[in-house]
Design a protein that fits this description.
41% helix, 3 helices, alpha+beta, signal, two-stranded antiparallel ribbon, 3-stranded antiparallel beta sheet, 24% strand
Length: 161
């Protein structure tokens, strides 16, 4: 009888460990997807040329178009609605929040060192670029565990022809 009880307890322990491993794998997959989405959004934003500056022979980023492009890329890649909340088909359950958004344009001297001590982030830009830091909350499989919160960072520079 005690062996049957031991087998049942060991099975429960094995199933719990397996479920925790599956939850960890799901979280890592979501982190990779989020990192790719943020990188794509930053890159798309950095390629939005200011046409008035370009007409004068200077390369700079149009801030309004850059922000719109980044928002569209985040929405499409993370399956979000227009306000950053998860839409149907999204793996996320909580809204995605842009914690830091910076367009570094011609008004800065290059190379420019961007620092944000809140997120322990530093990057050097050699030409105009974009910095994007997004807060993503990943729900856990077990409701007794706290969700995982990431600050996903992305930076891109203007690609010159």
């Amino acid at each position: 009888m005690y062996k049957l009880l031991l087998i049942l307890l060991m099975s429960m322990l094995w199933l719990s460990a397996h479920a925790a491993q599956a939850d960890e794998e799901r979280a890592v997959r979501m982190l990779f997807e989020a990192k790719h989405a943020v990188n794509r959004a930053a890159h798309a934003a950095a390629q939005q040329l200011d046409e008035e500056e370009l007409a004068e022979g200077r390369f700079d980023i149009d801030k309004a178009r850059a922000e719109a492009a980044a928002a569209i890329y985040l929405q499409e890649n993370l399956f979000l609605d227009g306000e950053g909340r998860p839409a149907a088909g999204s793996r996320l359950k909580a809204a995605v929040v842009v914690e830091a958004w910076e367009v570094i344009g011609r008004e800065h001297s290059f190379p420019y060192v961007y620092r944000d001590s809140r997120f322990d982030y530093e990057v050097t830009l050699d030409r105009p670029g974009v910095v994007l830091i997004v807060r993503i909350e990943h729900p856990r499989l077990f409701s007794v565990m706290e969700p995982i919160i990431w600050h996903v960072k992305g930076t891109a520079q203007l690609v010159l022809p």
